Fold this protein.
Amino acid sequence: MIIIVYGTKEFEKSYITKNYKIIMRALVYDEYTTDDDFSKILKIKNLPEPKPRPDEVVFKVMAAGLNYDDIWGMRGKPLAIPLPHISGTDASGIVTAVGDDVKNIKVGDRVVSHGNMSCRVCKRCTSGREYDCKKRTIWGFETGPLWGGYCEYTHLPEVNVLKIPDGVSYDEAAAASMTILTSWHMLVGRAKIQPGQLVLIMGGSSGIGTFGIQIAKLFGCTVIATASPEKLDKCLELGADYAVDHRKDDWHKEVRSIAKKIVKPFGDVPGVDVIFEHIGGSHWNKELTLLNYGGTIITTGATTGYMAKTDLRHIFFKGLNILGSTQGTRSELEECFYWISKGKIKSIIDSVYTLENAVEAHNKMLNGKGLFGKILIKPNLDQ
């Protein structure tokens, strides 16, 4: 057993001796924030570099994408994640070591994380519903202590990494990972979008929103995207057919006006068929008023809050479908990267930061001002 002096605290972990050796840099916090001042808790620490367990690979992190669960983790709400903590669910890099039981990954392979960790043997996992596994955890959020992507080297089970296709960069892979998987599972896996449908992408400038626009267009849908006014043109450039300022009180009236003008095939009634929702309480009830008869709203996350008032009349009179969604499956992620490799979907990267600038990066994500697409952290910008 060794004792690592960690800031002003000491902690003991017998596994460290077995699984770690050379020193690396990592972005760490060992307490929660009470005021969203991340500079008080985020510190760069020197930690032992991981060694692979039998079923694991170790890779040098080339890029990692920020997610809003980083904020939740640092707040300790809604989940008190393990401390001390390294965040980072979406990471890409080059494999430097593999465990004895690893079969399909070798040193030198370029890989990207699949952050949805499940048991792989229960009935839900074996029926293709690994996202519903009772033992499911999100790597870099719920895992720990000290197990995430914001560091120079990290480790994952072989089943939780994918080889990056040729022609896809480390940055593009890290900006996709869990983000495109979330969007794909929402629209394709759960809502099962079809050509000709009218799809409303709420928050089209966010990471999942930018992928949502592209996925809906890939499937032949007409897309209305919402965003703040300075980001509307970028949503249109990405492929949205219409863009609406969702900061206006009457944003929903503009969406309804657009929907009425769009001619549906086979004489179907005009209206929104599918709503891609992750904003939460502030827009929820207005969204329900926009759905066509038999329409679907698919929701994940809630950046403006979890509590939402619902007028049930919209649901039972129009036969609406309300679906929840989290992450998708490994096979869905492979399908996503196939389309990225073919140039049909692209990662939208807003900005790139180093570990030293992580506080600034997280503040930008929290505030959202001017943000369009994903923010990346790279342990070394020259990589």
User: Anything to note?
Assistant: DSSP finds eleven helices and 19 strands in the chain. The first strand starts at residue 3 and ends at 6. Residues 181-324 form a domain with the Rossmann fold fold (CATH 3.40.50.720). The chain has a mean pLDDT of 91.
